[in-house]
Amino acid sequence: MRRDAKGRGRARRWTRTEARNARAAAGFLLPFLALFVLCFLAPIGYAVYQSLLKVERTGPLGLGGETRDVWAGFANYRHALEDDRFVAGFGRVLLFGAVQIPVMILLATALALLLDAASARWVGFFRTAFFLPYGVPGVIASILWGFLYVPGISPLVEMAHSAGWEVDFLARDTVLWSIANIVTWQFTGYNMLVLIAQLKAVPEELYEAARIDGANAWQVARHVKLPLIRPALVLTTVFSIIGTLQLFAEPMVLRPLANTIDSGYTPNLHAYNEAFTSNNQHIAAAEAVLLAVVACVLSFGFLRLVGGGARRRGREDGG
User: Fold this and answer.
1) Is the CB of residue 103 less than 8 Å from the CB of residue 236?
2) How far apart are CA 53 and CA 67, in angstroms?
3) 180 neighbors 97 (Cβ within 8 angstroms)
4) Nearest to 130 by CA among 188, 199, 197
5) 71: which strand partners?
6) CA 158 – CA 164 distance, rounded (Å)
7) Cα separations in angstroms, 190 against 108, 115, 167, 234, 265
8) For 176-192, how does the pLDDT look when each residue is reduced to its tens digit (9 = 90+)?
9) Which residue from 93, 165, 255, 288 puts its CA 20 to 30 A from 298's CA?
10) Rounded Cα distance, 18 and 35, in Å
11) What is the enclosing helix (H) or strand (E) of 85?
């Protein structure tokens, strides 16, 4: 037994080759870890630290004295959660995402399936045309669509009036969906390309086997293509959830055109105004942390939901 124990002790020691490989792996990993800590973890840690402070001013009525940061605990988080406009902004972007994300993913899936069809013509042209809006910065896209929304200069409004329809794209009840239209126009092509890339990775033999079994184009799309591009659908949906919570440029640009968009229309806009208009950077940091927490909860909750469904289907298929 003593000889076996010595043998196990010797087995745990690294050989020179293993040690050299370990040092080489560490050498490759260290630059990534340094950048990850510097560019990802450090900003998050600094935002959390700032969210736990508050500004204390000395002197009569807080004027003329010193200004310093002191510990505030969770007071900034409590202040943010008691702010009706900040909470209402969360409700607004959640409603926005519940409607806009399914519409955009459905459009992107339909376009990807159409361009991947064997009978599709001018695939390269249409793929580029649908992707082009993604190359337009959000601010520019909002300005372009803003001209199409403003009554008096918008040809869309004029055509609607000519047809007897009274439309106002910037009214209180419609401006959220006007923003959704801009986001859908801009990101549908990007999501379509992700789905097409997944479709191109599907082995051609699967399509041939389905056709030999008598499947038509719709049946191939439904029973072969859609199940196999499911990972890409999940990925684009998660990206869309995170992007929805970061909604900022579109309401910021349309705000001078629509008085229904206030400074707290979205959580990001509210945090921006707290930081750079009201000079409450610590409250803005708390709101940014809350926004990140909600994005994590929704993204991982969605992944857990679709992952649980896949596992249940796997158990049912396995009997």
Assistant:
1) no
2) 13
3) no
4) 188
5) 53
6) 10
7) 8, 14, 30, 14, 26
8) 999 999 999 999 999 99
9) 255
10) 26
11) helix 84-116
Nearest residue to 275 via CA among 86, 10, 4: 86
Q: Token pair for residue 306?
A: 């679709």
What is the per-residue pLDDT across 188-237, written as a single tens digit (0 to 9) for each? 999 999 999 999 998 989 988 998 998 888 899 999 999 999 999 999 99
Tokens 């440029």 -> residue? 249
Interatomic CA distance for residues 140 and 133, integer angstroms: 10
Which single residue is written with the structure tokens 């159409």? Answer: 114
If you search the block for the tokens 């009036």, which residue do you land on? Answer: 161
Q: Is 291 exposed, middle or buried (0-12, 13-18, 19+ CB in 10 A)?
A: buried
* Beta pairing partners, 55: 69
User: Counting runs of H as helices and runs of E as strands, what totals does the chain give?
Assistant: 16, 2
- What DSSP character marks residue 1? -
How far is it, in rounded angstroms, from Cα 168 to Cα 175? 8
**Cα–Cα distance, 237 to 231 (Å, whole number):** 10
**Tokens standing for residue 227:** 């199940």
Q: What is the pTM of this model?
A: 0.85
* Residue 160, both tokens: 């609607």
Beta-bridge mates of residue 53: 71
